[in-house]
Amino acid sequence: MILFFLFVFGLIIGSFLNAVIYRLRLDESFIKGRSRCPDCRHSLSWIDLVPLISWIILVGKCRYCHKSISVQYPLVEVAMGLAFVMLGTMYSLTDPLSIIGFISGIIVTSLLAIIFVYDLKHYIIPDVIVWPLAVISAMSNLLLGRSWLDLLIGSLVGAGFFGLQYLVSHGRWIGFGDVKLGLAMGLLLGWPQITVALMIAYLSGSIIGIFLIILGRKKMTSQVPFGTFLSLSTFIAMLYGGQIWDWYQNLVLLP
What we know:
Blueprint: H1 2-26, H2 53-57, H3 72-90, H4 96-122, H5 127-143, H6 148-169, H7 176-189, H8 193-214, H9 226-253
Helix pairs in contact: 1-3, 1-4, 3-4, 4-5, 4-9, 5-7, 6-7, 6-8, 7-9, 8-9
């Protein structure tokens, strides 16, 4: 039953994150003001804003202007619901430290989701999201007793890896937003889990990039929203980085 409530809670948070992503681009407050249709600007009532259910009932169209509503909205809601369920299976909600980890996991996952969608849509990793991600990651890890040395090494590896690429290419290969995200990733994952996230991001990015080139959707010189791959790989490494690292070590050490 608790997992069902976590899924519903994730749907609600996902709905809120969609509003944040939309208003962030317009530089509008995501706390004040009523939600509006992005096409006709009509104020939406509560019946239009029930996570996932409203989109299904309205068949993906605005009730007022009948323009299509982006599939981003239900996808983000469902993704957050599933992510919260995954977090719920990783933490015991009876132990105080575990509860701190669970709450910080929810916040961090929400920030990563914003980066995932925002960079995918606009090719920008917003500072207003990545800096809170870095601070919350460092504070929660220290509260949970994580080694500050592991966090320091992780942040140096994450920021240094992208910083070196940024300097060598004069910003042609990656943007400086990736450097800042690398720092936040290191403070969240620490060492050696940061390497797991980097490997997953580059592997998945390469596979999808090649696939899109084959389909003619991208060119070799096309810009890539790498923050999207980094945010997803960070979430995976946050949950399973230790197991993946152990598996990789055993694989490499096999005779």
